[in-house]
Structures are given as C-alpha cells and as structure tokens.
C-alpha cells in the first residue's frame, strides 16, 4: 500500500496516532474485555470518556464556565433547524450573514420556521470574500445573528469575528473548530459537525451559553431542545459513543501537540506552503478567495482551463493525493488542510504544484 496524502474536505484525515490507539484498544477497552462500542452508555467506563471529552474541549478552547458543551446528532445540518426552532419567535428575525453555500442552507431552514433577513452577503462576488462590519444590516428585534466561520466550499474564513451586542451571535464552525483560538464569549452558540477537525462523523458539538437555555421551548420536540441535552449532560438518549470516544482521542492528541495555539501555528505553516505555490505561479494557479479572506482549512484554486484542472487532478491522483477536486458546485481544485493533515502532505503538494507548473 503506497502512502496517500489525504486532502479530503470531510470526513477527512484523522491523526495517525489516534487511529493506532483506537486500533490497539478496539477489542478490549480499558480492560473491560469489550470494545467501547459494546459498553452501556450508562457504564462508568463510557461515562469517564464522555466527561473527559467535555472537560478537554473546555480546557483546549478556553470555554468559560457559563457555557455548556453538548454532544448532539443529526450533523451540523440539524442545527440549521434546531436554532430557529428554539430561538426564532413571533415578532423576531433570524438574521444571517451569507458567505457561502452552508450559510445559504442555514438560512433556508430558518425560512421554514419564521421571519429571516440577510445581514450581509458576498454572493455577488461568488463568495470570494467576507463582509466587513460596515456592511451589516441589523434589526432591533433580531433573535440572533448567524455566520459560518469557515466556508468549506469557497475557501474563505472570517479572520476576526464581529462583536455583536443586540442579539446572540451564532456560528457554524464545522470546518474550522479548534484550528485556532477563538474568543468564545463573543458567541451565544457555536456548533460543529465533528468530521473535519474533531473526529469521525456522527457527533455534533454545540457550545451554548447558559442563558440561551432559558428560552421557552414548549413547542419544540424534546430531543431537539438544547435544554434537554444540557440537563442530562448529553446522555438524554444513547449518544454516538464511538464517535465521542474518537473525539476524546482527537482532543487528547490536540493537547499533546501543544494545544490550539500550537495547532494554529502549524496550520498557518501548512496553508502558507500551498498559498505560496499559488502566489508564485505567475497566474498559473488562481486562488478563488481574496487574499484577506483566505481560509487556513480549505484552499481553493483553478488552473487556466477546466481541461487543465482535470489533467492536474488526474496526475495528482496517480501520485497518491486524495480529495483535491473542488466541491461539485464550484469545481476546480481544493486542498483541505485540517488539523490532522500532516505538514509533509502539504510539502508534497507544494512540490507537486511547482513541478506540474514547470512542466506545463
Ligand atoms: C461549514 C459547514 N456547515 C455544515 C456542514 C454540514 O454538516 P453535516 O454534514 O454534519 O450536516 C458542512 C459539511 O461539510 C460544513 O462544511
């Protein structure tokens, strides 16, 4: 088996050490004689893993005491509905900042539930940029303001988050959670599907400020209430135990790497290799994102023609690069350089980009 360089957009690379540890204890977790998947979610062995994952995330992400960490199911996509179901009441507005397809999808779900508005959008430039604070249009009856911190498909990322005082700020951080330090206190709610930076698919993490748990949820189905999960420490029903076990392993690995600051530094180094290959190519590679909006997680670019894109991707595949094709809705090329993607993979990609350009 030859080595592969995994640049998948999600599910995506997991740290090799994490996979090896999971393999080593797959059939006998903690001396139980069983795999973690076979244990009761009410058992002490499982509960210790569950609690450790919550505590580690709080520690690594510097989450203040007045926030709860929840483990939910239904992916980030279910959050698109849970948010308006919970917070979008008669006479209020769900206000969305549109920076790509995922924020559009979040808005679409909110429209099914109540009144919405678009606080700002960069759709007119095909989502190459992030709006600036001067562009925001707020309403005094905003129930919340929603943004997507990193735009997986277009390859843009918020560099600084706005401070919003009139309503809770809610962020979909599915594709950049834990890639850099974040001031959690700016947000009422942060959510993320795990399958990029946190672990395998199957668990969705929510970080919610306690005062948002006090809203009236009488009309919301029990399992779709944040309060249900907060009150039961995310053990209201059977949680995705294996996914949470893997999340705990990934968080342990992040800590071993030196925490989120060290991870950010490495992510910057990795992304720079590929952005440099683009910037030093005399226009052969064209980045989609404007420079001041570039994502550290998803690097999107095109070659001069669609035919060139396809040839570049075909050759890359032969060389062991996986997942470099752009999302089907925008095409081109995309390298996803999430936390677990090793520096060597980015060095190899840079070398391939340079040599491909030199020979074309
Ligand atoms: C930013 C963002 N939000 C939401 C989603 C959807 O997540 P899920 O598949 O967990 O519903 C994705 C998936 O790629 C994403 O990148």
UniProtKB/TrEMBL annotation:
Pyridoxal 5'-phosphate binds at residues 76-77, 102, 152, 172, 195. The gene is serC. Homodimer. This is Phosphoserine aminotransferase. One of its GO terms (biological process) is L-serine biosynthetic process. It is found in: Cytoplasm. Pfam families: Aminotran_5. InterPro entries: Aminotrans_V_dom, Aminotrans_V_PyrdxlP_BS, Pser_aminoTfrase, PyrdxlP-dep_Trfase, PyrdxlP-dep_Trfase_major, PyrdxlP-dep_Trfase_small. Catalyzes the reversible conversion of 3-phosphohydroxypyruvate to phosphoserine and of 3-hydroxy-2-oxo-4-phosphonooxybutanoate to phosphohydroxythreonine.
């Amino acid at each position: 088996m030859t080595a592969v360089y995994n640049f998948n957009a999600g599910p995506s690379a997991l740290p090799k050490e994490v996979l090896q540890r999971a393999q080593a204890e797959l059939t006998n977790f903690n001396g139980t004689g069983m795999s973690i998947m076979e244990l009761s979610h009410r058992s002490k062995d499982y509960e210790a893993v569950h609690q450790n994952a919550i505590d580690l995330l709080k520690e690594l992400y510097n989450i203040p005491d007045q926030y709860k960490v929840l483990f939910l199911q239904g992916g980030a996509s279910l959050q698109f509905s849970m948010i308006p179901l919970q917070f979008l009441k008669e006479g209020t507005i769900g206000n969305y900042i549109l920076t790509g397809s995922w924020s559009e999808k979040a808005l679409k779900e909110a429209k099914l539930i109540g009144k919405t508005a678009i606080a700002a959008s960069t759709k007119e430039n095909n989502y190459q940029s992030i709006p600036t604070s001067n562009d925001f249009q707020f309403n005094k009856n905003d129930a919340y303001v929603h943004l997507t911190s990193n735009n997986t498909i277009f390859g843009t990322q918020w560099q600084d988050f706005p401070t919003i005082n009139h309503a809770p700020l809610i962020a979909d951080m599915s594709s950049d959670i834990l890639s850099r330090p974040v001031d959690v206190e700016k947000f009422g709610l942060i959510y993320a599907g795990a399958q990029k930076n946190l672990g395998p698919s199957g668990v969705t993490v929510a970080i919610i400020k306690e005062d948002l748990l006090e809203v009236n949820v009488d009309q919301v189905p029990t399992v779709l209430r944040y309060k249900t999960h907060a009150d039961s420490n995310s053990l209201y029903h059977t949680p995705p135990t294996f996914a949470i076990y893997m999340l705990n392993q990934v968080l342990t690995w992040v800590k071993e790497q030196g925490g989120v600051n060290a991870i950010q530094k490495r992510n910057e180094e990795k992304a720079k290799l590929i952005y440099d290959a683009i910037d030093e190519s005399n226009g052969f590679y064209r980045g989609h994102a404007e420079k001041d909006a570039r994502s550290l997680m998803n690097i999107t670019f095109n070659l001069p023609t669609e035919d060139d894109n396809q040839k570049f991707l075909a050759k890359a595949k032969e060389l062991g690069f996986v997942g470099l094709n752009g999302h089907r809705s925008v095409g081109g090329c995309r390298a996803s350089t999430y936390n677990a993607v090793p520096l060597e993979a980015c060095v190899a990609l840079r070398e391939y980009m340079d040599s491909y350009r030199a020979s074309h």
